[in-house]
Structure formats: C-alpha cells, structure tokens
User: What shape does this take?
Amino acid sequence: MLHDAPSAVIAGTGSYLPVKVMTNADMAKIVDTNDEWIVARTGIKARHIADSEYETTSFMASEAAKKALEAAQLKPEDIDAIIVATTTPDLTFPSVAAQVQAMLGVPPCVAFDVQAVCSGFLYALSVADKFIKTKSAENILVIGAERMSKILDWNDRTTCVLFGDGAGAVVLKAHGDTKRGVIATNLYADGRLKDILLTSGGTATTGDAGMIQMQGKDVFKYAVTFMAEMVDDILKQADVKREEINWLVPHQANLRIISGAAQKLGLPMEQVIITLDSHGNTSAASIPLALDQGVRDGRIKQGQMLLMEAVGGGLTWASALVRY
Ligand code: UT7
Assistant: This one.
C-alpha cells in the first residue's frame, strides 16, 4: 500500500431489480425445460427481466446508484468518479457511466465503463480502489448493471434459463481507517478460452445483437478450478486466514460452483450470500446485488471480512477481500 494512502471503504450500497419476474414455470412455457431441472442443476427459481422500453441498463444503474448515495449520505455533487461494469450497455457510446452521470446530475467527473463480463464488478472495484489509494478521487460510484435478456437466445434452453437483469451499486469512499475497506483485489483473464463463453456478434444496441453461446460444462470446470485457486492466492497475498472470512459474496452463476467455493473455504452455506435463486445470473450486477441484500437485511455488519469472487466470459476471473 502507498505511504499514507487512504483506504477505500464501502460507504453505501444500493440495487435495482426490474419489476417483471419470470419463474421457472414461465420459462417452461417458452422452451423445453422444467423447474426440477433448473433448480437441481443451477439453484435458480426465478429471474427479473427488464421492460424493453424504460428499464435500460443506464436506468437500472442510476436507480441502484441513487440508493447507494442515499445509504452513504452523499449527494450527486459529492461524487468525483463513476465506473460502471457492464457487458450490455444501451449504446456502443456514450458509456453507461456518462449516462448515469447525466441522469443523477453529477457535475463533470471521471466516468467510464469496464467490460469483463461476470467479473466486471470486481474489475471496476479494483480500478476504483486504485483511484482512491492514489488520491485521484474521494467518492466513487462503482456499479454493476446488466440487461442480459437483450443478448439471450430465447430458443436456447441451455442458456436462456440461466440469466437475469438488474443493477447493484456501491459508493467507495476515501477513509482514514486503513483497517477497513478494500484489502486486496486480484484480476485475471485468459483470452485463449474465449470460445467457451461468448456472444455470436454485434453489440447490445442493435437489432442484430449477438447472443450468448456457452459450453456450460467447460465453463463449469474452469469456474470451479479458478474459484479454488483464487481463494488461496488472495488470502496468501493479504496474509488473511480462512477463519477470518465472515462472508463469501460470490458471483451468482450456479449453486454447485458456489457450494464448492464455500467448501474449499471451510465456510458453512449460512455464511454465503445467495441471491441466485431469485435473480438468476445477472453477470456484472450479481455481486453488488448480493452485497446490497446482505447489507440491507443486516447480515453483513461493519468490520466484517468479505471475500468476493467471480468467473466469466473472456474467460475472466477476479477476487476481492474487503473489510466492510
Ligand atoms: O457467469 C458466467 C459463468 N457461467 C457459469 O459459470 C456457468 C457454468 N456452467 C453451468 O452452470 C452448467 O454447466 C449448466 C447449468 C449450464 C448446465 O448444467 P450441466 O449439469 O453441465 O448440464 P449439461 O449441459 O451437461 O446438460 C445435461 C442435460 C443435457 O441433455 P442430455 O444430452 O444429457 O440428454 C441437456 O440437453 O440437460 C439438458 N438440458 C436441459 N434440460 C432441461 C440443458 N439445458 C436444459 C434445460 N432444461 N434448461
């Protein structure tokens, strides 16, 4: 850590979920699937699907950000950077971050998107942490927002049942208490694995937007391996013991992957924040959505140690240790 560097503390969290909920029974009306298969293989029971008119990625991001600002007791004019993790921006440009800035009325500031698919929020958190530690910003909105429903092949039962829409946000704040805040982040990518999880072309904006294609079994194997390796790496790097972890706040792709990670940590499932059952896989939004749920229902308390980890398209993978 830099000499005299402030720590980057999570000062507030917020989230937004689309109004429309689609259950597994609703999915079974569209493709040849059933509740039993989806629950047994993934843990998902329902997901939120954005309205095609008004629940854009930037709208959901802004709504989540408003709640995070409120929780942090800050005003839009206090924010000096906005970083949005998304793989489903409304437009190729401007960035979702710039649109959020306009929607919230934040004065001119740093605003940009990062794209690391399901690992995106941890990439954004890591970048924001470095802005704070280098004193380049003091109050940063870090948001994960996704409209995955736009890039789903609704005829492909192997992918369309897995994903959902939503947004989660945190305010990361420069703080003098160096025992709290982001302790370590590790980011990884290996583009040689790009073909096992990708879109078929296009961008989220156009009528010919690409659609998700996934070799699920291959991704599953890598996810289990990377999740396990990341735990060892980050704990060693930060000199933190497994027993010090209070909460695992994982990317929500598959309950079997999450249970494997918890088992490796020796953590009972009671110490894992799960939103997968009601949100599905919301890609970059899943970790901040889970974090907000854990904070708002009172499970995550100030001073507790959180481990976050994710694996996604790219492939990318990432982890973060945060003392809340
Ligand atoms: O967030 C990004 C990272 N993504 C992930 O981490 C996802 C990782 N992968 C997975 O979570 C799992 O591989 C899946 C949930 C995607 C699939 O589970 P699986 O246990 O690997 O199933 P499978 O792909 O091997 O499919 C088993 C069977 C197949 O039928 P046959 O060939 O055995 O007759 C599939 O056709 O299940 C069938 N199947 C379905 N059946 C009912 C596939 N999708 C469905 C479905 N409903 N929706």
In short: The chain has a mean pLDDT of 95. The longest strand covers residues 165-175. The chain has one domain: 1-324.
